[in-house]
Amino acid sequence: MRFGLSLPMQHPMGEPMAQRFAELLEVVRLARQAGFHHLSASQHYLAAPFQYLQPLPVLARVAAEAEGMTLGTGILLLALQHPVHVAESLATLDVICGGRLVCGVGLGYREVEFEAFGVPRGQRLSRFLEALEVLKRLWTEEAVTFEGRHFRLREVSLSMRPLQRPRPPIVVAASNDRMVQRVARLGDAWTIAGHATFATLERQVALYREALAAAGKPFPPPYFSLSKELFIARDMETARRQAWPYLAAKYQAYAQWGQDTVLPAGESFRQPIEQLQEDRFIVGDAAYCREQIARHRERLGIQQLNLRLHWPGLPHRQVLEAIALLGEQVLPYFAQD
Amino acid sequence: MRFGLSLPMQHPMGEPMAQRFAELLEVVRLARQAGFHHLSASQHYLAAPFQYLQPLPVLARVAAEAEGMTLGTGILLLALQHPVHVAESLATLDVICGGRLVCGVGLGYREVEFEAFGVPRGQRLSRFLEALEVLKRLWTEEAVTFEGRHFRLREVSLSMRPLQRPRPPIVVAASNDRMVQRVARLGDAWTIAGHATFATLERQVALYREALAAAGKPFPPPYFSLSKELFIARDMETARRQAWPYLAAKYQAYAQWGQDTVLPAGESFRQPIEQLQEDRFIVGDAAYCREQIARHRERLGIQQLNLRLHWPGLPHRQVLEAIALLGEQVLPYFAQD
Asked: Which of A58, A325, B107, B309 sits 20 to 30 Å CA-CA off A318?
């Protein structure tokens, strides 16, 4: 199984971003040493109460420190940008990182983003679906003619193409059941955001397997991945004490952003951290982390696990310690898988 | 006077882009050693017959090699993207390069770009002007409400801000007389594309000075800059022999793209290179380059000269030789200015 690390893209407003970015580069170098295979950068606009770096410039800069690693958007808000811009920007990034780009895309859910970009409620999904189709076709066809509701292209031919041929892998995020089923048809793999409890994930993976089978596609696809909030320390108590306050604050912000409204019914973030974390986050010592990771891999069939172990405000030193500990006591355990 | 170098962003289709990008990084390192102060990356979409890298990922990656240098978009096609996306992407880039970003923007002129992005002919200028206003306001105001023809924002507050306060400098491209006059009101400085002959530039700079005076602004503004096609070799003959074929091919493509249609009447690129180059390009030995640069600086009042000495297909070795020669025999001559 491959391990990815979600980069520390978001920080409380008011914090000095030049220093936070220098720390991000330190995280990259340590993650590479620790044996991580992949780095991912997420995307949000207008992300108060956080300063949220934009993923494409970050990934391009990170490429200088990440030799041999794959780089991914996790995820790009495809409905908010024009697919020609996305296609050429990601193609450039694929050149910069030597053909190791994984293109992760998603619909998003935050009202404030759709409103600022002028995308009305009834057009969000169709805009996303059209943008995804146009992106794929621009990367793989000689010239694209497309008559959509949102995008109209006549004989548009991309001269700036990705290094990877026919194109970089495309993984698609999905939170609700219908979108999970749709992803089986749309992309190369589902990338699970991992906000939900294990029970929900297991149920949805079954739906995904069925939908793949119906589409005549094998399970699991190579880029089938799960993002997971995970934190590790020398013992369970320390891990919880260090992680929980920042996880709790982040999920309060998610609740305000409406993230849980796109999850299946019953999944709410408006709970105390002691309950919220149960079977949703992996926070503990090395033995506990290994056991939980093995359980997710075996029961869900994921090919890659993207760890999220930074939340806004968590001290940099603790992030570094957690990555080092993963490199010593967790990643080697899965090296032969 | 400050010297900038325009990065080799465009290459003939079919050339191996990973290698071309490795060469771009070599150009960056040599330019820094040679004493250049600034690097700029231009933007075009769908740029056949060239593969044209996108500027934001390139500048972000280049930041790793360009310590102490300023980085600029030269120019960004502002009418083709949403200003919230531009504001946060450039803010991220400003963080990445340590607050040394210069934001260059322009309207563009290529039908194929506007058409693919669905911007009708009658909306191009107003879309550009609105995007520029929104960008400036997002960077400097707490919350922006804007009711435009193309963009509508209600209390939109940027949490991801540039490192530079109040904001990065904004330079604006202009080719025709009306736009030159408009730029005096719009941005922090005019950035001259430099495709026109010296006589046209001199006439337009006079217009610009008048418009600045009318707006109560001093001349020259600190970021007043000129891009110029320049090539240098040991002697005049070698310089011409090496540069002219690639310059001629590039300006044939410009003519097909319609670049000269936005220049003042009488400026046409459809001429043999011997005539086209006259008083338009600077191609020669060190003495000739010094003399021409001094003339442009004195007669036009520019504060920065951005050299364009790569055109698609020009061998990498010749680019490196030209940069080294500039570092030895030209840039030191202007070091005290």
From this structure: A58
Q: Which residues of A touch B63 (CB under 8 A)?
A: 61
pTM above 0.90, yes or no: yes
Decide if B118 touches A, using CB distance below 8 A.
yes
The pLDDT profile of chain B, 337 residues, written as one tens digit per residue, is 999 999 999 999 999 999 999 999 999 999 999 999 999 999 999 999 999 999 999 999 999 999 999 999 999 999 999 999 999 999 999 999 999 999 999 999 999 999 999 999 899 999 999 999 999 999 999 999 999 999 999 999 999 999 999 999 999 999 999 999 999 999 899 999 989 999 999 999 999 999 999 999 999 999 999 999 999 999 999 999 999 999 999 999 999 988 888 888 888 999 999 999 999 999 999 999 999 999 999 999 999 999 999 999 999 999 999 999 999 999 999 987 6
The answer to whether B17 faces chain A, any CB pair under 8 Å, is: yes
CA distance A257 to A260: 8
- Pull the structure tokens for residue A168: 């970089």
Nearest beta carbon to residue B57 from set A50, A92, A116: A92
**Rounded distance between C-alpha atoms, residue A176 and residue A185, angstroms:** 15
The pairing of strands A38-41 and A2-6 is: parallel
Q: E strand or H helix at A138, and its extent? A: helix A124-140
3-state SS of chain B is CEEEEECCCEEECCCCHHHHHHHHHHHHHHHHHHCCCEEEECCCCCCCCEEECCHHHHHHHHHHHCCCCEEEECCEEHHHCCHHHHHHHHHHHHHHCCCCEEEEEECCCCHHHHHHCCCCHHHHHHHHHHHHHHHHHHHHCCCEEEECCCCEEEEECCCCCCCCCCCCCEEEEECCHHHHHHHHHHCCEEEECCCCCHHHHHHHHHHHHHHHHHCCCCCCCCCCEEEEEEEECCCHHHHHHHHHHHHHHHHHHHHHHCHHHHCCCCCCCCCCHHHHCCCCCEEECHHHHHHHHHHHHHHHCCCEEEEECCCCCCCHHHHHHHHHHHHHHCHHHHCCC
| B208–chain A nearest CA distance, Å | 33
Q: How many angstroms separate the CA of residue A47 from the nearest CA in chain B?
A: 6
Interface of A with B in 179-218 (CB under 8 A): none
Q: β-strands B144-147, B152-156: how paired?
A: antiparallel
Chain A stretch 24-43, residues whose beta carbon is closer than 8 A to a beta carbon of chain B: none
Set of chain B residues whose Cβ sits within 8 Å of the Cβ of A17: 95, 163
- Scanning A41-100 for CB atoms below 8 A from B yields 45-54, 56-61, 63-65, 80-82, 84-85, 88-89, 91-93, 95-96, 98-99
Cβ within 8 Å of B, A 313-332: none
The domain spans of chain A are: 2-334
Inter-chain touch A61–B60, beta carbons under 8 Å? yes
> Is CATH 3.20.20.30 the right assignment for the domain spanning A2-334?
yes
